[in-house]
Amino acid sequence: MSVPRPAAVVVLAAGEGTRMKSRTPKVLHELCGRALVDHMLAAARGLDPERLIVVIGHDRERVGGHLTATGSDVQPVVQAEQRGTGHAVRTVIEEVGTIKGTVLVTYGDTPLLRTDTLARLLETHAEEGNAVTVLTAEVPDPTGYGRIIRDGGGAVLAIVEQKDASPEQRAIKEMNSGVYAFDGALLSDAVTRISTANAQGEEYLTDVLAILREDGHRVGAHVADDHVEVEGVNDRVQLAAAGRVLNRRILERHMRDGVTVIDPETTWVDVDVILSPDVVIRPGTQLHGRTVVAAGAEIGPATTLTDTEVGEDATVNNTVAVGALIGPQAAVGPYTYLRPGTVLARKAKAGAHVEMKNARIGEGAKVPHLTYVGDATIGAGANIGASTIFVNYDGVEKNHTTVGDHAFVGCDTMLVAPVTIGDGAYTAAGSTITNDVPPGAIGVARERQRNIEGWVARKRAGTRSAEAARRALADEAAEQQENGT
Ligand code: UD1
Ligand code: CA
Questions:
Q1: What's the rounded Cα separation, in Å, for the pair 236 and 58?
Q2: Prior bond of 418 cis (ω within 30°)
Q3: Residue among 300, 329, 292 nearest 312 (CA)
Q4: Which CA distances in Å does 117 have to 134, 225, 426?
Q5: Which atom of ligand 1 approaches the CA of 204 most closely?
Q6: What is the pLDDT of residue 453?
Q7: Is 120:46 a contact under the CB 8 Å cutoff?
């Protein structure tokens, strides 16, 4: 059967998440480039719900601000005081009214839950014609979770919280995931009848199961295939564990689509990263944000790319890049830092110990060694000698440098911006260039060399240098005598 479209998905995210011990609200902690709550919302959107509601409370300015900034389809509902999961849902219904149809309730801190699993829950719910269907899982250690109480025939009777459970009930391994499909109209009525007579004095949403059952309605359960998916994140140990699972899932998706990942254990790829077939990712690589890598490109080892685009068959080795555009067949690294606004054209090179920002490097141009390129345009086929500095900052303003096509900038040139090196122009090694160099000219801006003979013998007498010089000069003299010169 096709998956029934839910009338609403309600995501509970009002809790503080004290065990995170954080300034950041729990649901805004990130995994694989996305906040915890956004992982849940992405899974929920896969069901195409008519409305998407998030219950916020603790730090609601920040969480609410995040939600409105990232998804216009999300309706936040404020639960001012966190008086339990049942109270959270009651607050939603008081604000938006009875929701007709199926209402799916989930949490904002279960980032591993997949659309598929939610869809299976909705199918069971519809097929069995239940008033409520709870998603459960068998877990090795159910400590802390609500337990699913079934009768001899396997029918679900109730959910009992850890703190309210008897020793026999605590032995039950089937746990409540906290995810449910409800009939909206029945839910509206039931949430008004939840008591607070329990160990925590809270309104438990779990009580709705027993209430509906006592009313004579059908109560069911759907057991998840994989308990790891329904386990929430409560502390940073679980955050890291969930991150590893999520990362592995992302990598497996890419590998099945034709990407080679040499070492999945040390490779981290954010959810929104786009990789083409025949990309090779070497160990120790992290791809973040909106990074896009085209076919045949090789990334790594030890490379971190954020919001960076890499063209076909480019190689990027031991590099950190943020907001850069690396053209097809370009070569970057090792030990290269590309900052925002760097654009390398086809076959361009940014080599070892090179830093670039806001710079366009023309087709086939080479910046091979030990160079800073800031605020610059470099023409096609230009060659920038080792240790060149684009002196872009005069202490007040950033200025632009232009290097023409097939220009040759000598080693250790200071290009003091604003300055232009014309097409096919050269600069002499060691020059400090402050004036434009016209096309085809060579700019020489350095002291002429003079040698002071015998300086070492006079000023550094008795040193190894003086001794080495004396020997060399004696040999030279002997040779000249032999040759009769
Ligand atoms: C809840 C379930 C438990 C289940 C477990 C699964 C109840 C009473 N118990 O327990 O059976 O095994 O989840 O993780 O429902 N929240 C609000 N407003 C509130 C209270 C909670 O929005 O007033 C949100 C929290 O932000 C959190 C979620 O609901 O995301 C669960 O709340 P929490 O207090 O952690 O419930 P548990 O004790 O884990
Ligand atoms: Ca919890």
A1: 19
A2: yes
A3: 329
A4: 12, 8, 65
A5: 8
A6: 97
A7: no
Check: CB of residue 344 under 8 Å from CB of residue 361. Answer: yes
pLDDT band at 345 (very low <50, low <70, confident <90, very high): very high
Q: Which ligand neighbours the alpha carbon of 107 most closely?
A: 1
Q: Measure the CA angle with vertex 71, ends 65 and 74; round to 5°.
A: 85
Query: Does any ligand 1 atom lie closer than 6 A to the CB of residue 207?
Result: no
Domains of the chain and CATH, by start: 8-230 (3.90.550.10), 259-443 (2.160.10.10), 456-485 (no CATH)
- pLDDT for the residue 484: 81
Q: Is the CB of 204 under 6 A from ligand 1?
A: yes
Cα-to-chain-centroid distance, residue 405: 37
Question: How far is CA 79 from its chain centroid?
Answer: 30
How far apart, in whole angstroms, are the C-alpha atoms of residue 134 and residue 114? 16
- What's the whole-number average pLDDT of the chain? 97
Residue 146 · residue 107 · CB < 8 Å: no
Give the ligand with the smallest distance to the CA of 36: 1
pLDDT, residue 485, reads 67
Pick the atom of ligand 1 nearest to 86's CA. Answer: 15
* Closest listed residue to residue 426, CA positions, set 370, 391, 392, 384: 384
Question: Cβ-count burial of 163 within 10 angstroms (0-12 exposed, 13-18 middle, 19+ buried)?
Answer: exposed
Pocket test for ligand 1, best of 16, 90, 107 (most atoms within 8 A of CB): 107
CB 15 less than 6 A from any atom of ligand 1: yes
**364-404 residue pLDDT tens:** 999 999 999 999 999 999 999 999 999 999 999 999 999 99
pLDDT confidence of residue 2: 81
The tokens of 181 are what? Answer: 């499909």
Catalytic: which of 353, 369, 400, 406?
369
Helix axes 115-128, 36-45, angle to 10 degrees: 50
Q: Are 248 and 229 in contact (CB under 8 A)?
A: no
Between CA 353 and CA 204 the distance in angstroms is: 59
